[in-house]
Amino acid sequence: MTDDTAPATPEIEFRSDVTVELVRSSASDSDVLFAARVSTQGEQTLESAAAGPSTSSGTGSEGRDRGLINYLMRDRHGSPFEHNSMTFYVQAPIFVFREFMRHRIASYNEESGRYRELRPVFYVPARERNLLQVGKPGAYEFLPGSEEQYALVDVATRDAATFAFTAYQRMLEAGVAREVARIVLPLNIYSSMYVTMNARSLMNFLSLRTKVAGTHFPSFPQREIEMCAEKMEAIWTELMPLTHASFNANGRVAP
Fold first, then answer.
1. Do residues 87 and 24 lie in contact, with contact meaning Cβ atoms separated by under 8 Å?
2. CB 3.0 to 4.6 Å from 252: which of 49, 73, 106, 215, for a disulfide?
3. Rounded average pLDDT over 181-207
């Protein structure tokens, strides 16, 4: 006999990716150029500053612009890279956001589990995600796991998420406040946020949250936040190609 009073089984979605979208931006290489040239040209830079985004500053050849940006990056004159803004919309597991917000160089607004019922969307690692940590902190690498380990991670993650979200729903249906009911939810539930930063802050973030050959200061990011960083970098590359190229050429160190 069916118990009609039992809560319905939640329709849970599992994802192995992250979402990063550019919401709005005021960011171009010309923003760096007019900010830097005010040091020597003063009010003569007003026209180029008001002209809006462009690859070239209009005050010289692209070669000169590229050279100036490279000089600023190489010698770590960082403030000209701050006169721009990018706002991203990000969907990722909560454990990624906790790492994100360690970077106190951006503005964040995240959805609230106090004010809305959270959606049953959970992260489960994809098959290509490495599972084994080898070495010690500061000098370790991640390697693939065995088929048995991948199966364990997949099944255990799905079972835990299903159990937790069912408990969450039961508490909500019983009239428990959202801010209390959410305490049973695991860190792999997805959240969403807006994050706004300038190019200098983004370069700092990328230097720490991506692992790229040739960087002056190697980093060891968790793969899931690196997935976000890679998508943000791809967007930024299109907005500020000269700045991005100089960032790479100078060892991916934020000025």
1. yes
2. 215
3. 98
- 212: CB partners within 8 A, 6+ apart: 248, 252
Measure the CA–CA gap between 192 and 19, rounded to whole angstroms: 9
Residue 15 forms beta bridges with which residues?
123
HSE at residue 36, side-chain half, CA atoms within 13 A, is 23
Assign 1 a pLDDT band (cuts: 50, 70, 90).
Answer: very low
CA distance 162 to 158: 6
* Average of per-residue pLDDT across 92-116: 95
Rounded-to-integer distance, Cα 224 and Cα 190, Å = 12
Give yes or no: 209 in active site. Answer: yes
Adjacent-strand bridge partners of 14: 122
Helical spans, DSSP H, in the chain: 29-41, 46-50, 62-74, 94-100, 147-173, 178-181, 199-209, 223-239, 241-249
Amino acid occupying residue 198: N
How far is residue 37 CA from its own chain's centroid? Answer: 31
Structure confidence by residue, pLDDT tens digits, 112-167: 999 999 999 999 999 999 999 898 877 788 999 999 999 999 999 999 999 999 99
Categorize the per-residue pLDDT at 57 as very low, low, confident or very high, splitting at 50, 70 and 90.
Answer: very low
Which is catalytic among the residues 37, 209, 223, 252?
Answer: 209
